[in-house]
Each structure stands twice: as C-alpha cells, then as structure tokens.
Specification:
The protein has two domains: 10-83 and 92-121, 3-Layer(bba) Sandwich (GroEL), CATH 3.50.7; 129-158. Helices cover 42% and strands 14% of the residues. It contains four helices and four strands, in the order αβαβαββα. The strands form two sheets. A two-stranded parallel ribbon has the order 1-2. α1 (10-33) runs parallel beside α2 (47-56) and α3 (66-76) crosses α4. The longest helix is centred in the first third of the chain and has 24 residues, at 10-33. The protein is globular, with a radius of gyration of 19 Å. It starts with 9 loop residues before the first helix and ends with a helix.
C-alpha cells in the first residue's frame, strides 16, 4: 500500500520484478530478524513471499477471514501489522507468542493448529468441526461463527 509503479518498457518491467523480489526478501528477513516465525495473513501472499518465507524459516497461513483476524487480535492483544509505502527499515511493532504451530489435515482440507498465548482472561481452547458432508459443516461453522461474534462483543468495552 502507498507505492505506485509505472512501467513503460520490458527493461523497466524486469527491473520492477527485481525490485519487488528484493522488497519481498527484505520484508521476510526483517520479520525473521524480529523473531517472527509464523505470519498470519488475511490475504493470499505472492509467490516471492512464500519462497522467501520457506527460505528463512517463516511459516505462512494465508486467507484468514476478518473475523478470524479480529479474534486472534482479541486473544493475543496484538494489532494487525500493516506496513505502509516503502518502509522496510522499521521494527516489528507487536508480536504474539505461539505455544505451538502444527499442520492439520481434515479430509482434503489443509488447516493449521496454533496455540496462542493470551493477553486477556480468555483461555483459548481448540474446536474442530467434522461432519459427513460439507453442508452440515457449513451450518455448524455458521452457528459457531455467530457464537464467536457474540463472545467478541462481550470483550468490547462499554463507553
């Protein structure tokens, strides 16, 4: 965000690809040097980010919903990190401690099981929903999402 690049030739295009690749590597190196070993992302990351994450030992979980991000922020007390512009030198403002992180395969779905340390009174627990067909899973997931939304509302302070 905050960076615009205008490409007018093949040479400029190659140079911009090198620049983007260099920025991806610098960002992952900065995360790793800041002690980050797991990146939870609300968007799908570019191939270069995934490549450098593997190279530098940073695990990436992509495409988390806004509700999942909000719940993680509530549990950990950490705000989402959103770099702006060409800022690649600043430190990592906040990070949460994960007790564990391991892959989880549920049928054909690849998931991740993360144990987060809590900065609030909530002691998170694990819940895995399984059903014989996707429709039932979706119904259970929708009901659970409603319950989690209600819990998030309980954590909000009253003005």
């Amino acid at each position: 965000p905050g960076v615009e690049l205008v490409v007018g030739s093949e040479r400029q295009h190659r140079a911009s690809l090198r620049w983007c690749t260099g920025r991806a590597e610098a960002a992952v190196k900065r995360l790793r040097s800041g002690g980050v070993r797991l990146l939870l992302s609300s968007v799908k990351q570019q191939e270069e980010v995934i490549y450098y994450a593997k190279l530098y030992g940073v695990s990436v979980v992509e495409c988390l919903s806004p509700e999942e991000i909000a719940l993680i922020c509530e549990i950990t007390g950490v705000s989402p990190y959103a770099p702006f512009g060409d800022d690649t030198r600043g430190g990592i403002p906040e990070a949460a401690v994960a007790a564990f992180c391991q892959p989880l395969l549920l049928g054909s779905r690849r998931c991740v099981h993360v144990g987060l340390s809590s900065a609030c009174a909530l002691r998170p627990h694990c819940l895995v929903l399984c059903a014989p067909v996707d429709g039932v899973n979706e119904q259970h997931a929708a009901a659970l999402q409603g319950a989690l939304t209600m819990l998030q509302q309980l954590f909000k302070t009253v003005d």
